[in-house]
Queue: 3 jobs
Job 1
Amino acid sequence: MAPENDPRLDEIKSKLASLKEQNTAIEKKHTNKIQDSESMQVGLRAGAELITSILAGGAIGYALDNWLETKPLFLIAMLILGVITGFVNVWRTTQNVGYQVGYKDLNKDE
């Protein structure tokens, strides 16, 4: 019997193809879970940076107003600066700017 016409060989090939398809499906599902997890991490980090910078600006403005007795002036100014800083940090986080090793080298012209 020639090896090309062996039914056992065809059976092994079909089982191998089936296992490869299953493995590909499992790898794809795992890759999607990893991507979802990374997206959630970026979203949580961006939200935390926004909230933190707004609260820090408000706290600094409130403290300056109490110290200098200028009630709403510094609170409003520092809240505005906190919001601006928060949005810049969210943009940097979502664009992945400034968080890699060698960030300072990005702006150098070589």
Job 2
Amino acid sequence: MKKTIVPILLAAIWISISEFVRNEFILKSYWIGHYQKLGLVFPSEPINGAVWGLWSLCFAIAIFIIAKKFSLLQTTFLSWFAGFVLMWIVIWNMSVLPAGLLFFAVPLSILETYLAAFIIKKITA
């Protein structure tokens, strides 16, 4: 149980912190400006934060499962593709992805995924 719950929770906490810092402090102006151009208000109510917390937990679970069969780098890139690339395709399709933020979001999301995979690999080793 410790080798399952603890790594997933620690990875989820790391992912949540990373997402919060990236989207609230580094990229929020991109989001707000893009949403204003669309005539929308960027959603930043507490319920949105709770849903992102749920996403972080689900992402950590996915990383945990992938990490059982793959190396750290393979886990990182498979997880990153499943968690971020697919999400970006969906939000781009809905016209709510400000493409300019990808310059920052791609490397930061890879780092986020790598560290989450690293946490899981280290604790489950």
Job 3
Amino acid sequence: MKKHKSDLVVVGAGAAGLFASIHATELGLKVLTLEKNEYAGKKLFITGKGRCNVTNDSDIGNFINQIYPNGKFLYPAFKNFFVDEVISFFEKQNVPLELERGGRYFPKSNKSSDIVNALVNRCKSLKINILYNSKVINILSENNEIFGLEYESNNTKFQVETKKIILCTGGKSYPLTGSTGDGYNFAQKLGHTIIDPKPSLVSLICKDNFFENIDNLTLKNIKANLMIDNKICKCEFGELEIQGKILLGPVILTLSRWAVEALEKKQKVDIVIDFKPALDYEQLNKRLIKDFNENSKTKFENLLKLIIPIKLIPVFIKVLEIDKNKLANQLNSNERKKIIQQLKEFKISIFENSGFANAIITNGGINTKEINPQTMESKIIKGLFFAGEIIDLDAKTGGYNLQIAFSTGWLAAM
């Protein structure tokens, strides 16, 4: 086995790993970065549908409120390196960011490749040694202290003598990008507790066949309630997408964290859609009376075009059990009440989630109680640090998760 030395070994060349490598090198350390993929930032390339939502224009308090299960753990990391520092870093690499709705920052070019290239090019300018196609086999420790690791590259095994390791191996989401939970195994062998990883920010699969003939429908400005065992537990406003039996879009991705946990516990999970959240029941009733009176000779099927997207009309006709050829002036008050109820409380039973293969982030990971929030160092093994998705921290969509990766990577390096 070939041997060499390094001040620090960073395992993983994703968002957290690249930032950790850069900052540690800037601080004067000799850094070796090991990446099992053939190139860096494989998951970053597909983030934000290829646009890469880098961070969010929120203050620390709001940021922490979007992070689960213990956002306060990140306060020291955010105090040291936060949104302004991320924006400044990329601007210095000639990648300006642009603020969009919801406080989301994207590269002006709308290309995630610009974010990855900025990080990789900074590594090159600092002459950081990144070894690709290099898989860590074992982390070496003695008396609860790191003394090295072993890895394999090009069918050759190596041993690195080092007293500092930062694990940035990600979670289990999008395993095709290399996030297969390797870091959990290493940490567990060294005595760490792993909070059971689950898919988060993931699409949900309907039990019913309401939407089986709908290929692609985006509903904007709706309200979605998550019901667990017939009790509303979470609510989101915004955009929802329907692709056959699959529900996705920002509101579903956010609600999925709790839906996945409930499904795992064999609880009853429903998504209840309010198609008209701007109108209460009385206002909606008046609106329908007005539409029915103004279109008294219009068939019910055509009347629905004034109320809902065309693709949903067959669904509503089936659920309401109202003759599609019935004229507006023939609809009675009970039928109008049924229409209102479905517009405000359209219930969809959820059967399953789409799994880690389609999850944006992982819920679970290294227990934060076993990590020093001031340094990201293990409380169990001296010299072992964690950064990014490997930690039991996950957030809603909007750039929050990448900021976690950048901030924890920077702090671990420091």
